[in-house]
Write a structure and sequence with these properties.
This protein is an alpha+beta fold and 207 residues long. The chain has 7 helices and 6 strands, in the order βαββαβββααααα. The protein has 2 domains: 158 residues; 46 residues, no CATH class. A 4-stranded antiparallel β-sheet has the order 1-6-5-4. It has a two-stranded antiparallel sheet with strand order 2-3.
Length: 207
């Protein structure tokens, strides 16, 4: 899934009856002040074909929701997402609603295509997280420049590699290597990025 294949995010505002957007904006400003620090609890290594490999950290969707939902709820706000299918296109709707009836809705459409369903699922998960961070105004990724260096740039992050259950649960480098060795050629290529990611994690844990 490339950026060119994605439709732009569509945003719409629904005012509260007789009150406009003011109650939502006021509540949201208070909620943002109550968000807890978001931990970048995941790491991924990307290996471009013609550039050096690089790594970055990010917060998964569960971490983001755990650190923001309490403050949203305390201020009469809710955030939810709906994933539906419309004529072969997956539609991700993210809605920030207020008890007054006002809401902000962000919609992104993802062409389904004929690719691997697991890779497509990973793309949808990434986009759900991407829209939530944008809508809530929180930073959940290392900033990357166009060469993959952290520290600047526009903060755009590639889709995380597909996880392998056995590699995910491996406790030692030896266990991880055995799992990789037992895969066929196609599977090794498919999970190579995730293998490198888990190898880095286990090496850091053993240091």
């Amino acid at each position: 899934m490339t950026q060119a294949e994605l439709h732009p995010i569509e945003t719409s505002l629904t005012p509260a009856p007789g009150a406009g957007m003011g109650p939502l904006y006021t509540a949201f400003a208070k909620a943002q002040g109550g968000f807890k620090p978001i931990e970048k609890n995941r790491a991924v290594t990307i290996k471009p074909k013609e550039k050096p490999a690089y790594s970055f950290r990010y917060a998964d969707l569960q971490e983001i929701r755990e650190k923001t939902t309490p403050a949203l709820s305390e201020n009469g706000l809710c955030l939810f997402q709906l994933v539906t299918d419309e004529a072969g296109t997956t539609v991700i709707r993210t809605i920030l609603g207020h008890s007054s009836g006002a809401q902000i809705e962000a919609v992104i459409r993802v062409p389904r295509g004929d690719g691997d369903i697991k890779n497509f699922g990973a793309t949808v998960t990434y986009l759900r997280r991407y829209v939530v961070t944008a809508l809530l105004g929180v930073a959940a990724d290392d900033d990357l420049d166009e060469d993959g260096d952290t520290g600047g740039g526009d903060g755009h992050s590639p889709v995380a590699p597909e996880a392998h259950p056995g590699m995910r649960d491996a406790k030692t480098i030896g266990d991880l290597s055995k799992i990789m060795a037992g895969l066929d050629k196609e599977a090794k290529a498919r999970y190579a990025d995730y293998f490198n990611l888990r190898m880095d994690e286990l090496r850091r844990a053993a240091a």
